[in-house]
């Protein structure tokens, strides 16, 4: 049986353990992208004029995400420093008893939320790469799949706060001068590990190949039947997922000595 999952406190977090969390999140992201790719692009889900819900001027996807976030906020989802809403304004407060999440991050972390950028990138650039053109009318299921992708991507990207905290704690003397001079470029250079990024790109492509294949009892994987293209997932990581994670790391470090 699997070990009981334990919540790490700051003294237990290392660069290795935070990287392990990013690796585990890859699975969630890839499975959610595979689920979204089951439907065509379904532009009707994104068209504000097509929602037809009384007194609602949002698209169906906005409607579903706002309503879901409100329900999840009441259940305490956003009390967890790893979770960030897409529509933070006016969210209801949690109705459930507070869980004592370990205080690992600097309090300024709470002001960092790059979900509006992720939202733009996801709908304008990423979605057309993983879906085929067409409309099968499954707008509600499509929107629910979008939410799963967005939440998984958002959790991964904002985990950059924990990565940055660990890096800072491991060598404050390296980071402090750049933080004091608010030098974004220097911070970006310090926190970048190109060889790690190369491994991430190769691993997500490999996972996409494994998770997205047709499983047959007779023969081996038919690469022509992959549910999404491994090269596309590798590209998503290179162009958006890792750059946004690094943006979160820089934003966090800039405020780390406040
Ligand atoms: O592993 C790290 O050190 C991270 O900061 C995470 C990450 C990533 O997004 O995967 C980002 C920056 C590094 O260049 C390498 C990888």
TrEMBL record:
Short name of one Pfam family: CM_2
GO molecular function: chorismate mutase activity; protein homodimerization activity
Chorismate mutase domain span: 140-249
Superkingdom of origin organism: Eukaryota
Reactions accelerated catalytically: chorismate = prephenate
UniProtKB keywords: Amino-acid biosynthesis, Aromatic amino acid biosynthesis, Cytoplasm, Isomerase
Chief site of localization: cytoplasm
Recorded GO CC terms: cytoplasm
Pathway field: Metabolic intermediate biosynthesis; prephenate biosynthesis; prephenate from chorismate: step 1/1
Membrane-spanning intervals of the chain: none
EC number(s) given by UniProt: 5.4.99.5
InterPro entries according to UniProt: Chorismate_II_sf, Chorismate_mutase_AroQ_euk, CM_AroQ_sf_eucaryotic, CM_II_prokaryot
Matching PROSITE patterns: CHORISMATE_MUT_3
Cell location: Cytoplasm
GO biological process, one term: aromatic amino acid family biosynthetic process
Enzyme class (EC, first level): isomerase
NCBIfam families: CM_pl-yst (TIGR01802)
Entries under PANTHER family matching the protein: CHORISMATE MUTASE
Protein name: Chorismate mutase
